[in-house]
Amino acid sequence: MKRIVIAGTHSGCGKTTLSLGIMAALTRRGKKVAPFKVGPDYIDPSFHKFVTGNPSYNLDSWLLDNNTVKYLFNKGNQNMDISIIEGVMGMYDGFGIDKSNGSTAHVAKVIKAPVILVVEGNAMSTSAAALVMGYMMYDKDVDLKGVIFNKVCGEKHYEMMRLVVERDLGIKCLGYLPKNIGVSLQSRHLGLIPADEVEELSKKTDMLVELVEKYIDLDALEDIANVGDIEPGANPAKDIHMKYKGLKIGIAMDTAFSFYYEHNLQLMKEAGVQLLPFSPIKDTKLPDELDGLYIGGGFPEIFAEKLEENLSMRKNIKEWLDKGLPAFAECGGLMYLTKGIVDLQGKCHEMVGFFDTKAMMTNRLNRFGYVNIETKTGIRIRGHEFHRSCIEENDGLDYYYHISKYREKFIGEWKCGLTKNNVVAGYPHIHFYSNLDFLEEFLNKCLDYKGR
Questions:
Q1: Residue 126: helix, strand or coil by DSSP?
Q2: 2-225 maps to which CATH number?
Q3: Torsions phi, psi of 294, nearest 5?
Q4: CATH homologous superfamily for 239-451?
Q5: Over the stretch 169-193, which tens digit does the pLDDT of each residue have?
């Protein structure tokens, strides 16, 4: 199976632009491209899907163990021609200062994939070789096979860097992208981009494909990607295959709520769950005969007015949750289930009102990064937080998560995640493969509700 990791020296070096360009160009050549993203990010995978037409899967070696990463990688590239795995941050940046935990380099080693390093060539020439050599030597088990330069002043500039890198390091340079190419992408989820901007994105993709075809040696990249298969990894979820057949779970899916791991959705379907999409913005009520509800993350604060205007949906959701309908909500989903979202100007936009609290927007990140979670029922799971809001605390709230955070040492702990009736809602984003007991706890509640 052909596979290649596109790593970067640092965030902002151009690996997303190049990854998208390579994915799009190979797709235009008729290749079936399987896109992946290292880490927990939701934004880049939405662009991967846009340019390839295929779902993009997260590979996170901190949230998941090595066997699961291998299993999910092999599962996601079935019947595809080539897998393109976009890295995260710099190649060795992972969990704290541990280069072997969650980093692009670590994932590349787990799936035995060759790596192409994206280097910002601006304002350097022969020093490029010293820079690349550092990435080669830092972990010799990483199969670093090639370099692509970004923000290059021109052909002569590229040739200087190519000659010294290939001469002194024996690593192939696969090309470059010039400076000021005018195809920078917005750091917004596709669900937030209006139709006219999506059309502009299509034009930028066309431009990017032209640039990649002109400046990047895609044939050489495919040759490097042509490596042997890896051990498939055991299926950690084999015991729940079709175990929950017949369950119907409504899933919030629109511009306000679109942050879901593809693996989570597939896992639920493979367990026999029928996922029924609905829009908290446009629909007037939940789908009929539901056994459960799943409200993922997104940007409810941006669509707060539209969510507030849909009183019929808000009342319908609260009515069913009050009756005991099981629900699981993450981040934006938690915010939606509170009494309201208070914006930075102090205006409160009314939401579902199931939890007796409000979500207060802040002008900075409140929580960011990986967390260890222990639920009220003793289930341990890993998650990821990224939010610019906080829940207004009061004595009447019942917390479901105990969060602890470590890097090289203990950082802190706190209570998080609200529970009431059969509902669990918290800020952390959960990858169900981190601990299947967490998913089964929710699905068993849905089974009990269905059978009552």
A1: coil
A2: 3.40.50.300
A3: -130, 115
A4: Class I glutamine amidotransferase (GATase) domain (3.40.50.880)
A5: 999 999 999 998 877 766 565 555 6
Q: How far is CA 34 from CA 2, 143, 318, in A?
A: 10, 20, 40
Residue 293: partners with Cβ closer than 8 Å, 6 or more residues away: 249, 250, 251, 252, 286, 317, 320, 321, 325, 326, 327, 328, 329
| CA dist 379 → 102, 139, 266, 448 (Å) | 22, 35, 22, 19
The CB density around residue 414, as the number of other CB atoms within 10 Å, is: 12
| Active-site residue flag, 416 | no
Cα→Cα distances 344→171, 221, 302, 361, 389, Å: 51, 47, 12, 6, 10
What is the pTM assigned to this prediction? Answer: 0.94
DSSP of 267-312: HHHHTTPEEEEE-TTT-SSPPSS-SEEEE-EE-TTTTHHHHHH-HH
Model confidence over 19-46: pLDDT tens digits? 999 999 999 999 999 999 999 999 899 8
Amino acid in the structure at residue 76: G
Name the residue ranges covered by the structural domains of the chain.
2-225, 239-451
CB-based contacts of 254: which residues, under 8 Å, 6+ apart? 191, 279, 280, 281, 282
Q: What average pLDDT does the segment 99-124 reach?
A: 94
Instruction: Read off the tokens for 327.
Output: 């629900």
Round to whole Å and give the CA distance between 289 and 241: 23
Residue of 346, 438, 362 whose CA lies nearest to 401 = 438
Catalytic residue among 331, 390, 416, 446: 331
**Token pair in block for residue 198:** 């999506």
Cβ within 8 Å of residue 65, ≥6 positions away: none
Q: What number of residues does the chain have?
A: 452
Q: Which two tokens stand for residue 316?
A: 């319908």
CA distances from 28 to 19, 51, 260 (A): 14, 9, 27
What pLDDT, on the 0 to 100 scale, is given for residue 93? 94
Please answer whether residues 335 and 300 qualify as being in contact, where contact means their C-beta atoms are separated by less than 8 angstroms: yes
- Give dist(CA 294, CA 330) in Å, integer: 8
Count CA atoms closer than 13 A to 79's CA, side-chain side: 1
What would the 3-class secondary structure string for 88-108 be? CCCCCCEEECECCCCCHHHHH
399-414 pLDDT, tens digit per residue, is 999 999 877 677 789 8
Cα 388 to Cα 364: distance, rounded to the nearest angstrom: 6
Q: Which of 8-17, 116-125, 196-205, 285-294 has the lowest mean pLDDT?
A: 196-205
Counting residues of the chain whose pLDDT is more than 90, the rounded percentage is: 84
Phi, psi dihedrals of residue 422, rounded to the nearest 5°:
-110, 25
Q: What is the pLDDT of residues 320-348, one digit of tens each?
A: 999 999 999 999 999 999 999 999 999 99
